[in-house]
Amino acid sequence: SEDLQPYRTAFHFQPLKNWMNDPNGPMYFNGVYHLFYQYNPGGPLWGNISWGHSISHDLVNWFILEPALSPKEPYDIGGCFTGSSTILHGSKPIILYTAQDADGAQVQNLALPKNRSDPLLKDWIKWSGNPVLTPVNDINTSQFRDPSTAWKGPDGKWRILIGSEIIKGQATALLYYSTDGFNWTRSDKPFKFSRETNMWECPDFYPVSNIGKDGIDTSFQGNNTMHVLKVSFNSHEYYVIGMYDPQTDQFLLATNDFSVSNTQLQYDYGRFYASKSFYDGAKKRRVLWAWVNEGDSPSDAFKKGWSGLQSFPRSIWLSDTRKQLVQWPVEEIKKLRAKQVNMVSRELKGGSLLEVPGISGSQADIEVVFSLSNPSDAELINSDLSDPQHLCEQKNVSTSGSYGPFGVLVFASKNLTEQTAVFFRVFKGPNKFQVLMCSDQSRSSIAQGVDKSTYGAFLDLDPLHDKISLRSLVDHSIVESFGGEGLACITARVYPKLAIHEHAKLYVFNNGSKSVTMLSLNAWNMNKAQIVPMD
Ligand code: DQQ
Predict the structure, then answer these.
(1) Ranges for the Glycosyl hydrolase family 32 N-terminal domain (predicted)?
(2) CA-CA 20 to 30 A from 378: which of 78, 146, 386, 418?
């Protein structure tokens, strides 16, 4: 019953039970969205890794099919790990996936639909030529994984990236070429490497338009584009933006190179890992998925019978500044919006706390917009390079500043014993204003033994001219927040004991000494998505 499962989500994808991690091979093909994922059919912890498979017509409601790939052959018996799909010549989908073979080595394999005219692509056949790539020469057998979606160059050859660590301490994205998508040879130069980080998992490489929000096909060649390289390490999704030359396969960075800094560009500054994007030709957009793992314990996993969520799919595009990406929940989410509450513009004096009546604090979509009358009254910080997560930890929701903290309390119980606070603070640094966004989970649950880390990010906004907006998707044990219309995202997991179901309230607050203007607040209770087995 509901009460035994207060943490199951209403509109964030999860299987009916068991373990799920990375999204795999997402694609749009013949009118159908496919989502595959690392899945353990046998239990709520990682193991027996298979490719779960679900399909959708709207990225909101899903039919769960039988797993597409299961570890059975000598070349994948240790688990069918992460991989990507590519639609060759616009009509022939293939999957490239990593597996652990009978000797425990990581190899790359290929699978294709048994019947391409089955609209659901239910059955997948492993290619007779598997394994496609084995860890030969200088490649470490335990560090060779996660092939990317292939893109085609002007020479007609397909290219993929694979995460590796060739020389100890040197994270590498290996580059491979193929004329047919089946037979691959390694480039004599790695695509990119770094000595600053741990090994790279799940590389993703794609073009973004520098003239608007439309997504572009991974193989697109033409003007007005930049390229994004994303890699996964240190439990986060780091990316760089640059100019890619498909003639030489050189990638010239226009942003800082990869580092472990909390100010380095990241898709999300909370819990969000092993992401994958795909081009959705139906709506001309690039869509991003990521695994949002649990912050509770393995024994909690057995109690719940499941572990792991997918983020709500996001559209992703290059910001006007061309210095970062912008992300926003796909528009289809609006289908689930039910009762709406709207609050008109008002001043929120220091110390304000306002309940948003009639809106659930555990299953809602919330949009709120603030502005400041006189940002030059903001508190000073003495460096523009402070660590945002550290600032949010130091100055939690109860620490009053001048501008901020102001924002929302979600998953708030009676008397606010439990509360998850998503808020802003504005500072004056030596050279510019700093708008800090925090997701403070420190009081999210009276339970012990669940993670309550606080997360933080800076928003590239100028509070003299820009409004400060927040969108939060609240869904039972997850809050996914978008600051500055998607300039910075923070996803957190929470496990309240009191603030569950109808006991969870929503508030807007200002705990700074200065007044802020709340220009608008729109919140919706959300209906439950249909996520059901097929037949
Ligand atoms: N998860 C997969 C690997 C990948 C890692 C195994 C990232 O292929 O590197 O489940 O979370």
Answers:
(1) 12-329
(2) 418
